[in-house]
Amino acid sequence: MGQSVAARRRAPGRPVGNANQRERALDAALACFAKAGVAATSLRAIAVEAGVTPAVLHYYFGDKPQLLEAVVDERLLPASAALRVQVASAGENLAALVAAVVNGVGQLVVAHPWLPALWVREVLCEGGALREAMIGRIGPLLAQGLAQRFAAARRSGDLHADLDPRLLVVSLVGLTLFPAAGAPVWRRMLGAGDIDAQALRKHTLALLAHGIGQR
C-alpha cells in the first residue's frame, strides 16, 4: 500500500539508484584501471569506488569487457576528439601545429589526471587492455593525421628534410605524455615540486623552438 508509484513502475530486477550512477561508474572504472590495471581490477572494486552495488554495474554494463568498451567510447574517444579539435584549429603553420599538440596534451592531462598512468599501463605495456583500441580506433584519427600534416610540411620545406614526420609524432608524445606519466618520480628526484603542468608545457615549447644551445 505504501509503495511509491516509481517503485511500482520500476522494471523487475532494476537496481535502485540515482540518475548519475552510470557516469560515476565510468569515472570509478577509469580511476581503478589507472591505479591497478584493467586485469587486476574487479567489478566489485569499481562498485566500491563508485559507491554503488555490483548489481548496478551489471545492470548498466553487463560485464567487465562491456564496461571497458564503454570507457573507450565515452571517455577515451571524447578526450582524443577534444585534442583533435585543438590541433585542427592550429591550421597549417608548423610552429602553431606543434604548439597545439604540446598545449593540447598538457591540458588533456590536467583535465584527465588518469590518462598518463592508464596510457603507460594499458597501451605501452605488453598485453595492455587498451593497446588495440589505441592502434585501431584512436591512433588513425590523431597520430596518423598529425604524421600526414608533418609530411606536408616537409614537402613544402617548412619541416627539416632530415626529420621523419612519423617519428616527429613519436617525439612529441615523448615530450608530453612521458613527462606527465613520470612526474611523481622526477619531481621527487630533482626536487622539482614547483614545476607544474603549465611550466612543463612552457619548457617543452622552448626546447622545441630553441634547442639547448646558447642563443
Core attributes:
single chain; 215 residues; mainly alpha; Arc Repressor Mutant, subunit A; Tetracycline Repressor, domain 2; 2 domains; 10 helices; globular; disordered N terminus
Structure description:
By secondary structure, the protein is mainly α. It folds into two domains: 13-62, Homeodomain-like (Arc Repressor Mutant, subunit A), CATH 1.10.10; 70-210, Tetracycline Repressor, domain 2 (Orthogonal Bundle), CATH 1.10.357.10. It contains ten helices and no strands. It has helices at 5-9, 21-36, 43-50, 54-61, 64-88, 94-111, 115-124, 131-155, 165-189, 197-210. Helix 8 crosses helix 9. The chain is globular, with a radius of gyration of 21 Å. Mean pLDDT is 89; it is low at 1-12.
Q: Report the order of strands and helices.
A: HHHHHHHHHH
The largest sheet, given as strand count, sense and whether it forms a barrel, is: none
General form: globular
> What's the total helix number?
10
User: Cα distance, first to last residue?
Assistant: 83 Å
CATH architecture call of the largest domain:
Orthogonal Bundle
- Number of beta-strand segments: 0
Q: Radius of gyration from the CA trace?
A: 21 Å
**Strand content of the residues, in percent?**
under 5%
Unreliable segments of 5+ consecutive residues: 1-12
Using the coordinates shown, work out and report the CATH topology of the largest domain. Answer: Tetracycline Repressor, domain 2
